[in-house]
Amino acid sequence: MPFERAEPNDPLTRMTELKTSPVMEMISGLQVLSHPWRRGPWKARAASALGESFMETLKIFSETYQLGPAFIELAIDCPDPQDVMGFIHWVETLDQRQLAFYLLGRVYPLETLPERINRESITKLMADTSLDLCFDCITTPLEWANNLEKMRKRAVALWTEYWERFFREDMETCRNLWDAGNRELEELLIRSGGTRVYKKFSESGELPPPIPADQPYTSVHYIPVCHTLTTHLKYFGYGNITVLYDCTRSTEEDRSREEAGKTALRIARAIGDERRLRILTLIARMEYGLNGKSIAEKMKLSPSVISRHLSQLKDAGLITEKSEDNRNITYRLNWQTIDELSPLLMYYLGNE
Questions:
Q1: 9-52: per-residue pLDDT in tens?
Q2: How many CA atoms lie within 13 A of 196 on its CB side?
Q3: Could you tell me how many helices (H) and strands (E) the chain has, helices first?
Q4: Does 1.10.10.10 match the CATH number of domain 253-349?
Q5: N or C: which end of the chain has fewer CB within 10 A?
Q6: Residue 133: in which H helix or E strand, if any?
């Protein structure tokens, strides 16, 4: 069936490119593995394949340097994002100033970086350079600056071991998800244009100011990743915007997570009042429930006040009501809602 591409004059449509990057997946996956609050079957499988020694080494490395977001800057700029070992060898060939350029988030021009890289020289660079930035940029501890070569060797060793012992095989599973994610974006691009695709990952829909100011954007790359700490990340500069997005989350799942968040918020608001918490406590202590009149007497509040609190607790699913004679209503605690609150939050936050 013939089709006409939506918004033919939309400049973002012409700039949009849907790509894949095993290198990006590797960097993002290692961030997830090192994150203490992330769990799930994939992390358990990876940890089992890699072993306790690797996981402990990764934990110490991540806590010491906190360079995960900065390593993504390397992945964006590497010569071949499809070649993981090529990326690793490329990082080994960078001189210290080039490596520091990426670790500092590419916000300081390469020519302004000091010849000798150490904490003192980098601190001085930051103090002497005025950056008029109206956005968040990468900020990391400068533990790496005093021994850049040691940090590089440790990173290269971790990447190589991760690739050889786990990711080389796991990558084939990822490819199917990458392709599915990009197909969904391609359909949106054809149907609604590049601006609509960009707005999916940007509330305002506005492009960030170019960095450097004399290099306008000429391309917007969308790269799917299967294992990530957030729904999407946006990196920009030097004529390009790169959007990393979680390709495991479909539009339908986004709606489901949004509903989970609304439900969790409704419960939180219901229990965010001391009197309602006391009402829940009274009801919980009575195996066969409690009626509104008894609750009002115990709390020394008017029936109308108690009725409003009970209504909010009921709307949040925290209590149920039962009437034997259509007049006397008994309230009971809904333990199912309480049991589901933690998993609901974990699902919304993306940890399940």
A1: 789 999 999 999 999 999 999 999 998 877 788 999 999 999 99
A2: 14
A3: 15, 7
A4: yes
A5: N
A6: none
